[in-house]
Structures are given as structure tokens and as C-alpha cells.
């Protein structure tokens, strides 16, 4: 589905300029006087392969009459059609009574609008936006539309990523929380699936390799929708001989990608083996939430149980955020409690956090422990926003982010996980440097500068900057 973005605001705040930048066109007339745009205008744009439609609207004042009233109706019609509403304000003019009236009108419409502070060039953006925070919008973007500054960062937050679009497609096919059950052959995956379903839905037999294909089973439990995915057991590569088994492994890896939460089943009698760790690696690389189920717990001696628990705790120390359950799929002990962990994992993986909250957590983390200095300059991290879900992606903007040490990245991950109370799901961080407004631009000389340069070259003179450097030496 193509998102529709409506631009609304007072006259002469830069809506048409932003429209042209987003559509990479000059379809909207732009001039330095208010009221130029009267009818709503549609245009098409794209960012990172995601198409979208932009609607440019006439200026609103909040107390329209006559022709202005009809323009206001056109603007509010665009708001009704839009999936995303961008409320533009003028960072140079500051907050006005008209802005407050438009903000009230947008709130009454029931649409969730985003505040965009335009014309922040030539001044401190934070100071330019300070007046508008009183309007109470969750998301605020600081841009300079005439210089195409800050627009890419805004679109990155507004538009769904490719992973989110794929997630929407999977949600249409398989409703509710998708739970993938993976593990080595004959550890009790199918038995666990039948126990969670409450019926003998899949074949269970005491022989490795009984399940060959991934089976998607939608069902309902206590009013909630789920889809269980039973998978084939994954053995070590040297033990895989049949072509069918090779395809089964591919299906298992695809099932991990399809799932919201993955339950890794471990055989308590055999303990934690290297192949279990390889499967955990696949799950973490896919960014999926993880629940550990140590099966066949019934009938074990207390000493053996203590040994297995110690082994799991020691070798899975890096998964301290994942819940671990000791169960018996055959008898059902401990299986029902796993649903609580699955629900917590799903909520963490699909959570949505506003930009101002993530930025506040980032600033608090920096206040507690500042980033190191590189080449005599302090690494600056300015703000953070969410870049995706399942797994949660947090995008941090700043300068010199390529030099940020791994230890500081882990510190940020642990801080965000603790404050946001993320359970069972990994958190991915992306660090991006600020946009360079002069990137890709050629430094062209004026005719006068070109003549002076030619004369200097003929007389053998060095450029002024080179002469200054030689004098300093």
C-alpha cells in the first residue's frame, strides 16, 4: 500500500518547497508571498524504493472566510485522505496564534500529525523549535526545505522499511503471533507443538527426521491468535546426506525469518551441544526473539538437573535477556507458562517508541557516560529514533559515529534494553552521521575568480591559502 502524506500549515511556511523536494520536481509554484497555493496538488515521490504520494495544500489561518474557507475545506479533505499528516511551521517566525488554531483543528480531526519546523537554516535548530514544543506533538522534525536539509532523515522515520513491508505481507498470510519451534532432530519439537495445541496435529515418532517440512498451524488460545510453525530438525552439515533433508534445513531457516518468536528446544538428557549454539546463532542473525525450552526434564536425577542448569547458565551467559524454561512436552509440565514469555517477547519485538523518548534515553546515557574523544574531538550523538521492528532498530544520529567503540555501543544497548524493558528480543543499533549540505556539489568559480586564477598561474603565483600555510611554517 502506497502511503499518502499531506502537508498542512499557515501560508508561506514552505509547504510547496517541501512538496517539490519530496517529489523531486518543480510542479508546485513557489514564491515569497502567502496564499499562492489554493487547490490541493498531488505528486509522487520515492525513498529507498518506497513510493509515496504527497499532497500540497493551501495555507490555513484558523479563522477562514470566503475563498479562504473553501481553501481550508480542501486542506482538511487532504488530511482525511492522508495516512501521514505533516504540520509545517515557520522556525523564523516562531509560534503564532494561527499555528495553535491549526494544531487544535488537527487534534479534533483524529489524525496523528507530525510537527515539522521549517526554515531552521542560519540559526540553532533546537532554539528555533523550542517555542513549538508547547503544542504537544510526539514527533518533531527540524528541516530547511529550501536547502533540502533534514528531509531524508524525516522520510527515513516516516516511511516503512523493506522489512516492515515484508512483515505486513506475512501478517496477512499468518494471523496473530507466529511462534517457530526449532531444534535438533528428536528433541521433542513435534511433541511440544501438539502439547501447545492441545491435540495430536503433527506426527510424533521416536525416530530422527520424522518432520520433513515446515508446518504452519493457525489457532486461538484464550482469545488471542497464534500461528505455530513446526520445523524439521537441523543436524550438523557433515551428517546431512539426503536432498530432502537439505531442503528441510532451508525451510527451517525460512521459518525462523517468518516467526515473531522462536522457541529453541534442547534435549536435557544430552545437554547443550554445539549444534544448539549454531541454531541460536541463526536466530540472532535473523533478529528474532528467543525462548529457550529445555525438554525431557521429567525423570532426571537432581544431580543431573543441577548439572544441566549450570551448563545452560554458563554457555548461554550472552543470552541473559532470554527466558529459559525447563519442561516436559510429553507430560505438559511447564509448557503453559511459556506463553507468558512468548507474549512478552512479541510485545518487545513489535514495540513502537516515540522519537522524543528515545532521544531522552540517549541524552541520559551520554550524561552518565560520555563517548570517547577521537583525534582530539568528542564524538557527539545528537538524537535517536526507531528505524524498524522485529527486531527493534534504533537509529542514532551524530558525528564521527564510525569511530564509536564497540564497548560504548554495548553500553548503549544495555541502557536502552533496561529502560525500555525489552525482553527476549535483540536490539539493533544503526549509527549515522549528519547530512553534509555540500556533498556532491562542485565548487564552481565565478568569471572574475577564473580570470584571477589564470593570471596567477601565468605569473607563477601560488594560491592565497598555500601562501598562508608556507608563512606559518
TrEMBL record:
Assembly notes: Associates with the 50S ribosomal subunit.
Superkingdom to which the source organism belongs: Bacteria
Species per Swiss-Prot/TrEMBL record: Marinobacter manganoxydans MnI7-9
Protein's name in the database: GTPase Der
Encoding gene per record: der
Binding-site positions, GTP 1: 9-16, 56-60, 118-121
InterPro entries noted in UniProt: AAA+_ATPase, G_ENGA, GTP-bd, GTPase_Der, KH_dom-like, KH_dom-like_a/b, P-loop_NTPase, Small_GTP-bd
Composition-biased stretches (Basic and acidic residues): 441-459
NCBIfam families per record: GTPase_EngA, small_GTP
Compositional bias ranges of the Basic residues kind: 460-473
